[in-house]
Every structure is written in structure tokens, then in C-alpha cells.
Amino acid sequence: MGKSVANLDFDNILSLITEARNRVYVKANAELIMLYFNVGKIVSEKVVQGNWGEATVNDLASYIAEKQPLLKGFNRRGLYRMKQFYEVYSQPELLELIDVDHKNPIASALLTQLENSDNQQVIFVSALLTQISWTNHLLILSKTKSGEEKIFYIYQSIKEKLSTRELERQLNTATFERTMLSNKLGSQITTQLPKGIFKDPYIFEFLSLPELHSENDLQQALIKNLQNFILEMGKGFTYMGSEYRLQVGNKDYYTDLLFYHRDLQCMVLFELKIEEFQPEFLGKLNFYLEALDRDVKRNHENPSIGILLCKGKDVEVVEYALARNVSPALIADYETKLIDKKLLANKLNELTEQFFKNE
Predict the structure, then answer these.
(1) Residue that terminates a domain, selected from 127, 151, 172
(2) Is the peptide bond preceding residue 201 cis, with omega within 30 degrees of 0?
(3) What is the per-residue pLDDT across 246-288, written as a single tens digit (0 to 9) for each?
């Protein structure tokens, strides 16, 4: 039985209410972020000019509390956070980080607005910073160091509509460093994969797997924790199935995990290995990709991408294996425990230095 006419009307009204509330939230949030930026600007300039000291900022917090006792967030700590917010995002060099290297639609739209504006700082704040919540901004300010890292997580928060909990996980699992590592390694080994989409390594700390586990254990644990798995990969992925059947000739073959990526408009196949990468793994992956493209892919879709998740790899072996590979593929490590962020940062610095030496 379909829905009654009354129920359809009810749903329509509920939809209107929800959409209106969302618009109100977006506008209110934008006004709030602009307010915090402007308050931070005044406090920062007064302190820099030597007109205000710490005692004056304390007096301001007390004054606001006396005049507006129900107002939250304007205590001494909150005012200094607004000051930091202004000082970080008023730096002109941050504008140079707004690029469209990996066809980022957010950056592309922002660049267009910046190019047509006489006041780039106002556009930068109103068109970018107001798109995420103050709580997410506080997380980014407290857990990142470089401007590039901050802009990365702002893009992530906007593009994937990250909740505070989801953003915190991305920060704790060093998503920036892992994505940049994947980009750097990819530029040295293969140029077939789009930048900014895939990571290396992938972190599956949510699986609670023992150090010794089988491929089936890994596959079943990922399926059981599918929501967390997709969050780790990125919200552009849609699950198509496990043990996806491919018929070639008179035989059936079964892939591990198959997804579709909405932005890339292609299937993405994850094959799981609980051992270090071996060149022969690539032959099987390419076979599956060929079968997907011949028999499953639709005419308007792009060629399928293959991701081999291995328990370790030798970069030189990977480079040799991919040198003549025609299918877009990534050989990525996976870890079942969190990695020290400093180790990933050091590895990224080493790769960056090596890249510039080879230029």
C-alpha cells in the first residue's frame, strides 16, 4: 500500500520545516563566525598596539557577562580563541593555499570570488570560514600547525559535512598527512589516480582486530563496521557489495569489496591482503578491473580503480610493479592501530625533500 494523500502532505510540510531550519542554521552560523572574527580582530589589534593587556581582556569578559549574562562563549578563554582565530586566518599567505590542484569545487568557487573582489580577506572569511561550525574551527585550530593543514581540514569539513566527532577522528588519525603521502607517492609512481581522494596508509583502529588475522577476518570486520570504513575512505563512496560476482568464460570470480565513487563516477575495488605486497597481486587486481569495465561499467562512467590493501609494502617493489601497469591502481598499507602522527609527518617531509631534489 502506498502512502495516503494526507501522509504525503504531511511529509511535504515536514520537508519544508526541515529545509527552513537548515537555512536558518546556516545563516546563523555564518553570522556567528563573522562576529567571532570581527571581535578577534578588535582584541588582536588593541593588544598588538599596546592599548590592551591581559587585565583589559579580563575586564572586557566581565563587562560582557554583566551586560549580557545569558551570552555564552565571551569569557576570557573565548575572547583569546577569537583573537587566535582572527590572527591565523588574516594571514595573506593563506590565500596562496587556495588552489584547484585536484579539481576541488570549493576552492574553484572561492578563487572566482577572490579574483573579482577588492577585499579578499572578507571574501575568504565569508565564503569559506563561515561554512563550518565554530566547534569544528576550534578543533582545527587546536590540532593543526600549518596553514596548508588547516585549509585541508576546512575543505574536508565542508565537502563531507563532517560532524565534530567525525572531524576529530580525521585529525586524530592524521588524515592530512596520509592523504599528502598518498599524493606524493602517487606522483612518483603513477599519475593515473586523482589527487586528494585516496590515503596511504588506511587506519582501521575501529575493527579491534588482533595482530594475527585472516583476510576473511579483515573482510568481515570491515563489512560489520561499514559506516566507519566509509568514513575512513571518504563520504563520496557508496557500497556496492562484498564477494561481488564476476563471470568470465565459464568461471565465476568474487571480488572482496566493491564501491562506487559519486564524484569520480567510477567503481572502486578494494582487494585485501594480510601480507606484504607481492607483484603477482597486481595481475589478479587488473583481471578484476578489466572484467568490471567490460561487463559492469556503464557507458557514461569512468574506468574502474583498484586499491590493494596490504599489510606493508616495499616502495621500490611497488614502483617496479606499477611501471607498466595500464589500469589505475593504488597499493596502500593498512594499519589496525593508530600511527604516531609525528612519524607520518617526518615521512611526508622526507618525501617532499626528495621530490624537490629530483626536480
Answers:
(1) 172
(2) yes
(3) 999 999 999 999 999 998 999 999 999 999 999 999 999 999 9
Residue 104 corresponds to which amino acid? N
- For the CA atoms of 125, 134, 88, 162, the dihedral, rounded to the nearest 10 degrees, stands at -90
Place of cell 579491534: 208
Grid coordinates given for 24: 536558518
Contact between 153 and 227 (Cβ < 8 Å): no
DSSP state for residue 232 in the 8-state scheme: H
185 plus 288 within the same structural domain: yes
Number of domains the chain is built from: 3
- Domain encompassing residue 321: 175-358
According to the 3-state scheme, what is the secondary structure of 59-101?
A: HHHHHHHHHCCCCCCCCHHHHHHHHHHHHHHCCHHHHHHCCCC
Q: What is the pTM for the complete model shown?
A: 0.85
Determine phi and psi for 65, rounding to 5 degrees: -65, -35
Let me know the angle formed at the C-alpha of 283 by 280 and 288, rounded to the nearest 5 degrees: 140
CB atoms under 10 Å from CB of 319, counted, come to 14
Locate 329 and state its grid cell: 591502481
What's the rounded mean pLDDT across residues 94-117?
A: 71
C-alpha cell at 328: 589505475
The amino acid occupying position 288 is Y
Which residues, 6 or more positions from 31, have their beta carbon under 8 angstroms from its beta carbon? Answer: none
Question: Which residue from 115, 120, 121, 122 is spatially nearest to 100, judged by alpha carbons?
Answer: 115
